[in-house]
Amino acid sequence: METAGAYGGGKAGGAFDPQAFIQRPPVIVRAVCWLFSVIVMGCISAKGWYVNKTDGKEYCVYNNDTNACNYGVGISVIAFVASIAFIVGEYLFEQMSSVKTRKHYVLADMGFSAFWAFLYFVGFCYLSNAWGKTEIPPVGTANNMQGAIAFCFFSIFAWVACAFFAFQRFRMGADAAFAPAYEVEGAGSPGAFPAYPGAPDPQPAYSDPPFSQPHSGNVDYTAPTY
After folding, report:
1. What is the pLDDT of residue 196?
2. To bridge 155 with a disulfide, which of 10, 36, 127, 180 should be the other Cys (CB 3.0-4.6 Å)?
3. 65: alpha, beta or left? (left if phi > 0; alpha if psi -120 to 50)
4. CB-based burial, 169-197: b 16+ in 10 Å, e otherwise
5. Cβ contacts of residue 94 below 8 Å, gap of 6+?
6. What is the chain's Cα-based Rg?
7. Model pLDDT for residues 76-113, shown as the tens digit of each residue
């Protein structure tokens, strides 16, 4: 079933406007998430590793904690791919004619965005703690490591904003789904107003008492004699 405006989207099959699309807040925030993920990946990948001259092994600048570098790069790679996927989903959202499909997309957007905001919060705490324990970082790596921490922090708010926009859509869809139920309930109540001027009353407020029969002619109410 095609529903116009379901879950905050336009009518399915409508003309696509590129300028209006790129100006939509969910698309802008999703592009910001994509940009932040690129910056975090670039900072850690470029300067996050160094080779120890003593044993010739490669270590992470964050207190020699390999997991710290892998975590920062890992969540950013997934965020990079997910941001592109959700931007494509924003384009396809207007073409979704099924209300259930739109609902599933909105729920997936809201759940993923909230979860990734939490992962970036964990990453920010993790990298900050590891950087605080780093005694002497290699020369030329400090700015990149601190930049990765900063943009992990900014990513928290970007993904929270995505979850917020998805929640707004879900609430709009829920309100639209429950609105007809109240109208049907009110229309069937006794004494309800007609659906339009001049329409017959769907159910009168009062009716004749049961078991009443019309009387015709003269009726003798005198008691019988015995």
Report:
1. 43
2. 36
3. beta
4. bbebbeeeeeeeeeeeeeeeeeeeeeeee
5. 9, 10, 12, 14, 16
6. 33
7. 999 999 999 999 998 888 888 778 888 899 999 999 99
- Residue 189: its pLDDT value, please? 45
Q: Tell me which residues of the chain have a pLDDT lower than 50.
A: 1-4, 181-199, 202, 205-206
Q: State the DSSP code for 200.
A: P
Q: Could you tell me if 86 and 32 are in contact, meaning their C-beta atoms sit under 8 angstroms apart?
A: no
**Burial of 143 from C-beta contacts in 10 A (0-12 / 13-18 / 19+):** exposed
CA dihedral 104, 106, 110, 111 (to 10 degrees): 10
Which H helix or E strand runs over 120? helix 99-132
- Residues paired with 58 in a beta bridge: 51
